[in-house]
Design brief:
The complex is a heterodimer of chains A (about 600) and B (about 450). Chain A is an alpha+beta fold. In chain A, strand 18 and strand 19 form a beta hairpin. In chain A, helix 13 packs across helix 15, helix 13 runs antiparallel to helix 19 and helix 15 crosses helix 17. Chain A starts with 10 loop residues before the first helix and ends in a 10-residue tail after the last helix. The relative contact order of chain A is 0.11. Chain B has one domain. Chain B contains 19 helices and three strands. A three-stranded antiparallel sheet of chain B has the order 1-2-3, with helices on one face. Classes of the chains: A alpha+beta (about 600), B mainly alpha (about 450). Chains A and B meet through helix 1 and helix 2 of A and helix 9, helix 15, helix 17 and helix 18 of B.
Chain lengths: ~600, ~450
């Protein structure tokens, strides 16, 4: 068993050294086992992911986006398709039959053999023909069964109807950029995807986008595609049903475009739900033309066509604000029959504040002052109410707050307060500021949408319905995925008498006041004009209204940017919208006129 | 016939069963892995065939060597050594060059790599030398002589040049010297010498590659980087020499008696190491250098040498517990894994067989080593012990370097995993080594006849 004879003496020494060697190797092998355990058991999932990643390659076939419908179920946005032919060389056993190639050559009017040979040689999917004509496409579709390894691929292109009028509602599509990908709000998106960049395309992107399809291929170390696992058919996105009426959109946009400056916004809102029936901003852009070169033009345009004036532009409300001052006065139990004499100006200290009507309105009471939009009366009223009361009622009508519409980047506007002026501008609030506030000037900023929402609350006597554009979203299978439920942003509670008087005064404004241009003999319209002074240029023309006055259905806000006087420039646009609403649709009280 | 029967039955009766079972298991696992990695197509069919032929041929040699009394090698040691040198010389003259190494004999149907068998002959020769000088082994001239035997092989192998094959010579020599009773201090000096000889050219290359990325590297690398100029090296060497003498002088003052021999030997080791490094620097080929560097940081060379390690780690890691299944490993089948039926065979086992089979492989390998060392313990004479330990060391280091390499804890060197990797020469020579082990084992009880 052990060393024999003369060697016996050294054996015990040797034995110890042998043990050391054995232990040494045991340690080496334990190190190997630990590393093996670490790689396979602890990091196994991690390495498995990497190995899957490097062997699976997916071709991307873009899915068409969901259809967008108007309130009358007419299509507003859909998809067109560009067809191309792909050849995939897997499990083919060489080139297709000679006859097939000749047939295809005849249809496509070119020799496809080099493409096929290249495909088989490199083991890669090859595009044989691009941008097929309809005729070519149908011919190939007919023979599809016989054409082994050949697939027709449809690449969707978004097509919008009436793109100019509707672009600010739709928005447009663009490739997702790096910042968006990094932002974290686009999980599940990947570079190269198209996303909505504005409008409802952006807000409802996750509903509207389909599920991209394509081939899942296995590639080997040389990058050769060895086989195709499966083909996933691209899945169309869900359909969106809007509250938008194309007829009103068209009427409003055309009227705005023909207005004195061609710039402005108009909103039509359903006073019983907050549904937006029309929302236009002029000038506009073409949602179908959003390539880089088109964009360069839009960005160069001084009229800012990409800017949604209805929700993003801030204007002084001007005389439209008198509605709020009026409500505040009646609610504060001021005597509505108390009169003031308007000479055409109002002196406060050494400063003179003008009425828009230079000769002066003479003696007017509250009702007349609103109908005639007499500044002098409201200067007095504002001084009597004070800035805090004006603030309180501005907030009651949700000025300075977002309406919460389902369109992106809505502005909130601003309501000035005495404290704000003191802390921000380091000067105390002066009486002159109150006077200005009373006629909707100064640091008061509103969006046209806010004015429409305010008018809607006036019409329905106090409920602030949250405006919305998308009514419901329906999947391809017809399943309703989303349904807007009417929401309120609280309400403004005023005495019934206040509402009655306010409605009457607004009716008077249309019937015998500054908004006579919107008068229809058979529909009662209640409205208010405004002419907002603007230090940068011409006055902005406002017209806000609702109708029918005795049972309100819709409220409208119109602004013509730098358009001049409200009566002359904004009221006719409102009139066009009412004509479209009451006389060209099914709501016909009396035909003719 | 009777004689023949006696020959086999004697083998079967006396053989160490765990040893044989572990070898059969390793060969089987390797066979399946090679089959999976090379596929069934006609071009690759020959791999499994060649491997099978090599196993049969190797088993035949194993039986012959098992029957042959290993004691004869002691008497013929000079002849064995000369024969090994002749083998290595003739391959330099008649050999075929594959991948820049002139290390193969082309026999038409198969290649034969003589360095595989030369290694075993070296173990036989060195063991014989150590047995004869075991009582005086601590005399420096004997250690020197042992290294002279080593040098004969190394020089010839480096002329091919085959850097990876020389690697296993060092552990075999060191461990056998250790077994023979050489003082640890001398072994330390030898290891120091080798580290310096290989370390300097390695670092130089490392710095060349790191040049671009050094700014981002750690402080440690930056300090190393400052060493790249030749002058710094010289200062460093002089400083370490002076330091050594100071320590020795200090010890002397403290009346700790330390022979002047110790510092002198260390100094010589450092100096010779530096000198040797110059020749190593010249003989190292770029790709070999790169491989060693890549081991330090695979990301330096992601496309080339680093790629192999990264893909191998992915293959092993993705196997998980049970593996992807026979012929279902994506890394193996789609060609991501390099050298998959030779050096990286363990990665194939790892990917397709999972942790279960890879750990089993390591376990069988360890059983084999353990039995080989036990055979060494039970041998009837020091020669048998040395030979068995030497063979165990060879297999152990091959396995550690190879499996360590595929898992990224050892540098990439072209070292096969004996018994598993494809390769006729390594299979035949491995089985020859097993034959010698069996010969030692079978004769463990035999008493010397006084001749």
């Amino acid at each position: 068993m052990v060393w024999q004879k003369e060697y016996k003496i050294g054996y015990s020494d040797f034995f110890i050294r042998q043990k050391i060697v054995l232990i040494f190797f045991a340690i080496l092998f334990i190190i190997l086992s630990l590393k093996l355990f670490y790689l396979q058991i602890i990091k196994g999932g991690f390495y498995n992911d990497i190995s899957e990643q490097q062997r699976i390659y997916s071709t991307d076939e873009m899915a068409p986006r969901g259809i967008i419908y108007a309130d009358d179920d007419s299509v507003m946005a859909e998809n067109a398709f560009i067809y191309s032919i792909l050849f995939y060389p897997f499990d083919q056993g060489g080139l297709p039959a000679e006859k097939t190639i000749l047939e295809l050559n005849a249809i496509l009017k070119k020799d496809i053999r080099p493409y096929l040979e290249e495909s088989i040689r490199n083991g890669k999917i090859v595009k044989i023909a691009d941008k097929l004509s309809m005729e070519e496409m149908f011919k190939i579709q007919e023979k599809k069964m016989k054409l082994n390894g050949i697939t027709l691929v449809a690449e969707p292109v978004r097509v919008y109807k009436f793109p100019q009028a509707n672009s600010h509602v739709f928005g447009y599509l663009g490739e997702i950029n790096k910042n968006e990908l990094m932002s974290g709000s686009f999980s599940g998106y990947k570079s190269g995807d198209y996303i909505g960049k504005a409008g409802i395309e952006s807000v409802y992107d996750k509903y509207l986008r389909g599920v991209n399809g394509g081939w899942q291929l296995e590639v080997n170390a040389k990058g050769v595609q060895t086989k195709a696992f499966k083909y996933i058919k691209p899945e169309i996105g869900n359909s969106a049903y809007l509250t938008i009426s194309p007829r009103l959109q068209k009427a409003a946009y055309e009227a705005l475009a023909k207005s004195s400056t061609g710039r402005g916004a108009a909103i039509v809102i359903d006073v019983k739900t907050g549904a937006i029936k029309a929302l236009v901003s002029a000038p506009s852009y073409d949602s179908n033309k959003v390539k880089a070169e088109d964009f360069a033009l839009y960005l160069k345009d001084k009229n800012l066509p990409l800017y949604n004036r209805a929700t993003q532009a801030l204007y002084a409300p001007g005389s439209v604000f008198k509605i709020i001052a009026f409500a505040a006065a009646v609610e504060s139990d001021f005597d509505i029959y108390e009169t003031k004499y308007c000479r055409g100006y109002f002196d406060l200290g050494d400063k003179r504040y003008l009425c828009w009507y230079k000769p002066g309105h003479g003696r007017v009471n509250l009702m007349e002052a609103l109908a005639q939009s007499c500044n002098v009366y409201f200067y007095n009223l504002a001084l009597r109410l004070g800035v805090d009361k004006l603030d309180e009622f501005s907030w009651k009508f949700r000025l300075g707050e977002q309406t919460g519409i389902d369109l992106p980047n809505e502005k909130r506007g601003f309501v000035p307060t005495a404290e704000w002026k003191k802390s921000k501008e380091k000067v105390p609030w002066l009486q002159g500021d109150t006077v200005n506030f009373g006629i909707g000037q100064g640091a008061l900023w509103v969006t046209p949408l806010q004015m429409a929402a305010m008018m809607s609350a006036v019409a329905n006597r106090g409920t602030h319905y949250k405006p919305y554009v998308v009514n419901k979203i329906v999947s391809l299978e017809g399943e309703q995925i989303y349904q807007h439920s009417v929401e309120t942003n609280g309400s403004v509670t005023l005495k019934s008498r206040t509402w009655d008087l306010l409605h009457q005064a607004l009716i008077d404004t249309v019937e015998k006041g500054t908004a006579r241009g919107a008068f229809f003999p058979n529909i009662k319209i209640a409205g208010k004009t405004g002419t907002a002074q603007n230090p940068q240029g011409n006055d902005h023309a406002w017209f806000v209204s609702f109708a029918p006055a005795d049972d309100p259905e819709i409220a409208i806000a119109v602004i013509v940017e730098n358009g001049g006087g409200g009566s002359a420039n904004a009221v006719p646009i409102g009139r066009k919208i009412y004509e479209a609403y009451f006389f060209e649709g099914e709501y016909k009280i009396k035909s003719g006129d | 016939m009777a004689n023949r029967n006696n020959f086999v039955s004697r083998f079967l009766l006396n053989v160490d069963l765990p040893l044989i079972i572990s070898i059969i298991a390793l060969l089987a696992i390797g066979f399946v892995a090679i089959y999976s990695a090379t596929g069934e197509s006609s071009i690759y069919g020959r791999y499994t065939f060649v491997q099978a032929a090599a196993v049969i041929l190797g088993s035949f040699f194993m039986l012959i060597l098992a029957n042959f009394n290993y004691k004869n090698f002691v008497d013929w040691d000079k002849l064995v050594y000369i024969l090994s040198l002749l083998l290595l010389i003739s391959v330099l003259i008649f050999g075929t060059t594959i991948k820049g190494t002139k290390g193969w004999f082309d026999f038409g149907i198969a290649y034969f790599q003589p360095v595989e068998i030369a290694k075993i002959m070296y173990i036989l020769v060195l063991s014989s030398f150590l047995t004869k000088t075991v009582k005086e082994i601590n005399k420096p001239q004997f250690i020197f002589f042992a290294f002279l035997i080593l040098a004969g092989h190394l020089v010839l192998i480096m002329m091919q040049p085959d850097f990876s094959s020389t690697l296993s010579y060092f552990p075999i020599t060191i461990i056998l010297l250790f077994m023979a009773g050489v003082e640890i201090f001398y072994l330390f000096a030898i290891v120091l010498f080798a580290l310096i000889a290989v370390g300097i050219p390695l670092m130089t290359t490392f710095f060349k590659l790191q040049n671009a990325v050094v700014e981002k590297s750690s402080v440690f690398v930056k300090i190393l980087f400052s060493l790249q100029s030749g002058l710094t090296w010289i200062y460093l060497i002089i400083a370490s020499l002076i330091l050594l003498f100071l320590i020795w002088w200090f010890c002397k003052k403290l009346r700790i008696r330390v022979s002047i021999l110790y510092p002198a030997i260390l100094c010589l080791a450092i100096l010779f190491g530096c000198i040797a490094s110059i020749s190593v620097e010249r003989s190292l080929k770029d790709y070999q250098r790169k491989r060693l560097i890549v081991f330090l940081d695979p990301k330096i060379d992601q496309k080339d040498s680093g790629y192999n390690i990264i893909q191998s780690k992915i293959a092993i890691g993705s196997g998980g517990f049970l593996g992807k299944g026979f012929k279902k490993g994506t890394q193996t089948q789609l060609g991501f894994l390099p050298e998959r039926y030779t050096d990286f065979i363990f990665s194939v086992i790892g990917e397709e067989g999972g942790w279960l089979f890879s750990q089993l492989t390591i376990l069988f390998y360890f059983i084999f080593l353990w039995r080989a060392l036990i055979i060494g313990q039970n041998a009837r004479d020091p020669y048998g012990s040395f030979v068995a330990t030497g063979i165990a060391t060879m297999f152990g280091f091959y396995a550690f370097i190879n499996i360590g390499m595929v898992m990224g804890i050892m540098p990439v060197t072209g070292v096969p995993l004996l018994f598993l990797s494809y390769g006729g020469s390594s299979i035949v020579s491995s089985l020859c080594a097993v034959g010698i082990l069996c010969s030692i084992h079978i004769r463990r009880h035999t008493h010397y006849k006084i001749s």
